[in-house]
Amino acid sequence: MTAFFNEERNQVTLMKLAVRKRKIGIIPVLEVVDQDQLYTPLPLIVYYHGWQTSKELVLTQGRKLAQQGFRVVLPDAQNHGEREAPMSQVPSLTFLQSIYTNLFEFESIVDYFTQLGLDNGRLGVGGVSMGGMTTCALLTQHPEIDVAACVMGSPSLIDYRKQLEESFKKRKISVPQDYENLTSWIPYYDLALHYDEIKKRPLFFWHGIHDEKVQFVQTDRFVRNNLGPEITFRAANERHMVKVPTMDQVTDFFVNHL
């Protein structure tokens, strides 16, 4: 239960949030929404977790968004959470497969709530790390997305693939010789490659300068090359970690634009 202070009435108003487990086909999700608006059409936000975590790990962000009147859906990515499976010994296969499956499943998630009459036509997408990469990839193909937020994820899957390849070489880990062909879907979903071609929407980036997992330079380069009034970029003196102030910035961005 969340408390809000109403200055006009000089009293505290309590909002009770509902957190409901749903299964959309085979996709386990958490739906977070104001208890009093369970069946009210609301702006819908699909928010994706990061690598080797789960939907429960972005529940705090989901609650913060729901407190502001959004219906928030937190899916478990393939190989994660309730869908956990052994990791492939082939480098990056499980990681990229998880993003790829997110892309396949996105429309099913949105359609589910649309068919129930629970969205009002406004759609936001966001995510952390792998979820941020998913978000940026979705923007290349889905003009129906109105607002997006990428937290410490790369807007360039091509650059991130290069980062992975360089890491494998340093660690003397072999990859298939046709690695780029096996990941040939990536250029179609690279936001940096296609940003000039797509509809511009409010887009929020947060990235730690000292990020040791997803290179800060990938986001920084994208923003420098594409900076316009629709882009908000917050660079922080942080590593690969999301703290409460970042969650608040994400929430404020959706409140102001969705």
TrEMBL record:
<dbReference type="InterPro" id="IPR000073">
    <property type="entry name" value="AB_hydrolase_1"/>
</dbReference>
<protein>
    <recommendedName>
        <fullName>AB hydrolase-1 domain-containing protein</fullName>
    </recommendedName>
</protein>
<dbReference type="Pfam" id="PF00561">
    <property type="entry name" value="Abhydrolase_1"/>
</dbReference>
<dbReference type="InterPro" id="IPR050261">
    <property type="entry name" value="FrsA_esterase"/>
</dbReference>
<keyword id="KW-0378">Hydrolase</keyword>
<dbReference type="InterPro" id="IPR029058">
    <property type="entry name" value="AB_hydrolase_fold"/>
</dbReference>
<feature type="domain" description="AB hydrolase-1">
    <location>
        <begin position="43"/>
        <end position="186"/>
    </location>
</feature>
<dbReference type="GO" id="GO:0052689">
    <property type="term" value="F:carboxylic ester hydrolase activity"/>
</dbReference>
<comment type="similarity">
    <text>Belongs to the AB hydrolase superfamily. FUS2 hydrolase family.</text>
</comment>
